[in-house]
Amino acid sequence: MKLPSRTLLWSFLLFGLLLIVGLLIPSPLEGRLAGVVGDSMHGFAFAVFAWLLYRLLVGLSGSSPRGAAWIVCVSLIVFGILTEVAQYFVGRSFSIKDIASDSLGAVAGTFCAIAWTTPEKRTRPKLIAAAAGLLLVGLTPALAGLVDIIYQYRDFPTLASFEQPLERLRWRVVSSRMRRSQEHATNGKWSARVDLQPADDAGFGMIAPAADWTGYQHLVFDVALDEGPPLDVTLVIGDRPAKLLVADCFERRLRLQPGLQQIAVPLADVERGPGTRRFDMTRMDFIWFAPIGLKQPRTLFLDHLRLRPAVPPNMHAPAGGQ
After folding, report:
1. Which contiguous run of DSSP H or E holds residue 60?
2. Residue 154, Cα to own-chain centre: how many angstroms?
3. Three-class SS string for 197-243?
4. pTM, whole model, 2 decimals?
5. 160-308 CATH
6. Could you give the residue range(s) of every CATH 2.60.120.260 domain in the chain?
7. How far is CA 8 from the centre of its chain?
């Protein structure tokens, strides 16, 4: 084996090991920004891995360029899927977006490797341009998330007002549907319409809001419920030490009445958390709304979720709160 081939082999093995560690070991970094940075690296990492693997296959085994390209693309796409499945078992989350970025990166890296080795000079710019386009497409979700983070810091202490379409990236929805609406908007022109379905796991919430809530006294939001009986909803708030464990979170039962209402939750109560410890109010991590005993579809509108230092005289505690 020639020295360049040995170098490629060791580079491939070392980079592959680092890639597996990076994909499967829980990240020590916290917050949305760390997640966006991590997401942006998927495509580039798989592009480098594909480039190394293609060069190895062509240089060591004498595979044809077309055969090597197919082997690289298919094997790395499968590899990307398997690592995402494995993340579910190591405390990380399975992501279709990451699989798409991995796949686009694998194809882009293969194009670059072909451009590197092809004797046809006219083909090289086309392959490199195609690779750059694929990487850019794979990078789009991360760029959108970065823009929304900028909006998030700009608008703080407003946590959500739904005036920007990208705000939807902050929210997760289970057995429900969320979309922007101009009905019942209380801060600007837009609110969020949430269509809840009668499922045990139905709910919606914001993941990784602006983390530091110190210096504020209330979490306040406006909600309008459709016609019908009152709806009981569990509000769950967690800091990062809670790690999404409901038993280690703040919970409050809210009774929503039909029509528009304003809810204020004292942050002093939130800071007491589950009662076994005090929350770290500089590392708040999620807000979740879960309907209780939902028997039929219901619709509510949410707007102007914010932190406020004091409650106006005409505001009252939420009905059903403890």
Report:
1. helix 31-60
2. 19
3. CCCCCCEEEEECCCCCCCCCCEEEEEEEECCCCCEEEEEEEEEHHHC
4. 0.76
5. 2.60.120.260
6. 160-308
7. 35
